[in-house]
Amino acid sequence: MEWFWYFLFYSFLGFLLEVGYAWWTGGDLDRKCLLLLPLCPVYGLGACAVLLLPGAVLRSPVLLVIVGGLTATAVEYAVSVFYQRAFSVSFWDYRGQLGNLNGRVCLPFTLAWGLLLLPMVYWVHPAAVRLFAVIPPPASWAALAAFTADGIVSSVILRRTGDRTRLRWYRTAERPQ
């Protein structure tokens, strides 16, 4: 169950990163991918994919930035294709960004993912390993049930409407002038 916690944890950190980035750049503050839980699963999947890379890659900062950044970008592309094909929605669009590929990924964010992996792999993840190793099984099963229920409800909403704004159950905050 530790990998499930890693997925949830990095999905939550991704949600925080998305909201912070949107606030900082003046973008859309509504950056969720599930109905209730504040998670962006693409980040959890990307982080887990990177953590599964060979130890030689994870131990080398240069290889981590390059191979890890490309791995995270490949996951981002695949998840974008999945969202489009399964739900007819797009949660991001990089058209107009340098080196974009079908608007699904772009060069600046590939570099950003690679650089963000350095603190994730070397500082954040070692602490996460210790934290999630002591979570009791009933808490893990409850979290899995909540995530699964939210994922099912969110999927049904997206399949029926094809509108990601239908996942918004809250008012978006007004941006200060």
Task: Please characterize this protein's 3D structure.
The chain has 177 residues and is mainly alpha-helical. The protein has one domain. Helix content is 67%, strand content 0%. The protein contains 6 helices and no strands. Helix 1 packs across helix 5. The mean pLDDT is 91.
Shape: globular
Number of domains: 1
Determine the number of helices (DSSP H or I, runs of at least 4 residues): 6
Count of strand segments: 0
Percent of sequence in beta strands: under 5%
Q: Summarize model confidence as the mean pLDDT.
A: 91
How far apart, in Å, are the first and last alpha carbons?
45 Å
Biggest sheet statistics: none
Structural class from helices and strands?
Answer: mainly alpha
C-alpha Rg, in Å?
17 Å
Question: What is the helix fraction of residues, given as a range?
Answer: 55-70%
Q: Notable features of this structure?
A:
globular, 177 residues, 67% helix, mainly alpha
